[in-house]
């Protein structure tokens, strides 16, 4: 079945991203899958864990409202076209893996194909029983004793009695 988003929603998503491309189309369809699966979810209760940093993440962000700033868009750099969605209210979740092959098609044909193919053919769905990731926490900021910049406490490292931010730690630690 063709994408359920209106022409206007699609146009605004493309505008937000900056161009139309197959990756953005995949993200829009993943967002559609999420919103169709959780039709009554409070937008602030939705969470997306993305396993890629590709164009599609912009579509998910724009259409679902999941953002890094709110802590309900989480990036795990696995290089996979996979997206896990959760509803924190119901603690339900599922993982989608883009599994449709569009090899050999030109860009416009790929976009058209992704936008018109049934969601069940585009993605492999796996139910998740682990529950949603915890909500974002506000942590204490600490001053890096090397560069002097404020850094979130959970992103500091101790080295020879000093508190260092990750970039400064990498400069002094041979293993980093």
Give a summary of the structure in a few sentences.
The protein is α+β, with helices and mostly antiparallel strands and 176 residues long. It has six helices and nine strands; from the N terminus they run ααβαβββααβββββα. It has two domains: 7-128, 60s Ribosomal Protein L30, Chain: A (2-Layer Sandwich); 141-172, Wheat Germ Agglutinin (Isolectin 2), domain 1, CATH 3.30.60.
What is the helical fraction, as a range of percent? 25-40%
N-C termini distance: 48 Å
Uncertain regions spanning at least 5 consecutive residues: none
Q: Tell me, what is the CATH class of the largest domain?
A: Alpha Beta
Largest sheet: 5 strands, mixed
Globally, the shape reads: elongated
**According to CATH, what is the topology of the largest domain?**
60s Ribosomal Protein L30, Chain: A
């Amino acid at each position: 079945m063709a994408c359920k988003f209106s022409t206007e929603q699609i146009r605004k998503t493309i505008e937000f991203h900056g161009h139309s491309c197959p990756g953005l189309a995949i993200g829009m369809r993943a967002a559609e899958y999420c919103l169709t699966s959780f039709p009554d979810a409070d937008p602030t209760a939705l969470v997306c864990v993305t396993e890629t940093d590709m164009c599609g993440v912009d579509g998910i962000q724009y259409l679902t409202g999941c953002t890094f700033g709110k802590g309900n868009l989480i990036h795990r750099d696995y290089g996979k076209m996979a997206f896990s969605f959760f509803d924190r209210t119901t603690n339900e979740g599922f993982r989608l893996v883009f599994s449709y092959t569009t090899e050999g098609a030109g860009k416009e044909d790929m976009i058209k194909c992704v936008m018109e193919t049934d969601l069940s053919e585009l993605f492999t769905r796996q139910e998740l029983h682990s529950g949603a990731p915890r909500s974002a926490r506000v942590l204490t900021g600490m001053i890096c004793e090397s560069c002097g910049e404020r850094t979130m406490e959970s992103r500091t490292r101790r080295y020879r009695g000093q508190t260092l931010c990750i970039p400064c730690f990498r400069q002094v630690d041979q293993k980093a």
